[in-house]
Amino acid sequence: SRRPRSSPTSQSTPSSDEPIYPVSRIVLSYGGDLQGLPNLDPLSSIRFQGDGAGAPYIDLGLLLSDFPLEPPIRLRSRDLRQISEIIVQFLKSEGFEGIVALVDPSQIDPTSGKDLRSEKDFLLTYNIWVARINEVTLSYAPSDKSETPDRIQRMETLTSDLMNHHNVLGQPFTTSFKRSVSRLGRSPARNTRLLLTPSTRPGEVEAVVEIKEDKNLAITAGASNSGSPTTGEWLFRGNLLAHQLTHREDPADFSW
């Protein structure tokens, strides 16, 4: 049979000017598909003191156990937010992006903070969502409207190769995919960014890889009257930068 576990004896009494929630046990629950998501057991090793005066010591190992604390620990709104942030930061450290971790709104009203649990119910559930990508599209803005079809096809191929390499469709949104998109913009002639929009299905997003090409040629020129008797009073200088000399990712820089 299960025996209640004792809550930490060093717990301080929280200040009375904010809501207090008695909690004997916390359950972490992923929303949607679990494929590709990590086990949350490492969170059980975390123990910390809440923020501010009168903050309790919070031992997630005790709260995540199958055995309820007796008596329940008294947590404040800010303590619950801290636990949410710890969950998010853990998943980010595991390489995931687009994370939401919130107390079940059927237990605590997210707007008013009112405790909706029954008088003897001290269980608290955190619903955790990690965004999944269900579609990736390319938004390509060439520097020249007369861009050749071959160039446009190359951009489409780059995006397709990126998707295949990371196997992104239907998978959790990861930092590695985000980083790979940014690498497409390493060329001085190109800027890239990743835009995410909500999908019609909860927990899923649509990714847009936006690629903008800069103008191929950049010319600067200047003059100053800092010369010498040898060079003459006026000095002239200039720079010509071709981002893609032959349209094959081959920048060239000429200065004089």
- Quickly give the structural class: alpha+beta
- Main sheet summary: 3 strands, mixed
Mean pLDDT: 80
Order of strands in the sheet with most strands: 2-7-6
Compute the CA-based radius of gyration: 28 Å
Amount of helix: 10-25%
The number of helical runs is 4
Order of helices and strands: EEEEHEHEEEHHEEEEE
Distance between the termini: 85 Å
**Low-confidence parts lasting 5 or more residues at pLDDT below 50?**
none
Global shape: elongated
Report the strand count: 13
Share of β-strand residues? 25-35%
Description:
The protein contains 4 helices and 13 strands. It has helices at 60-63, 77-93, 149-166, 175-183, and strands spanning 20-23, 25-30, 47-49, 57-59, 73-76, 99-103, 123-130, 132-141, 190-198, 204-213, 217-224, 235-242, 252-255. α3 runs antiparallel to α4 (175-183). It is elongated.
Write the layout of secondary structure elements.
Elements: E1 20-23, E2 25-30, E3 47-49, E4 57-59, H1 60-63, E5 73-76, H2 77-93, E6 99-103, E7 123-130, E8 132-141, H3 149-166, H4 175-183, E9 190-198, E10 204-213, E11 217-224, E12 235-242, E13 252-255
Parallel strand pairs: 2-7, 8-10
Antiparallel strand pairs: 1-5, 3-4, 6-7, 9-10, 11-12, 12-13
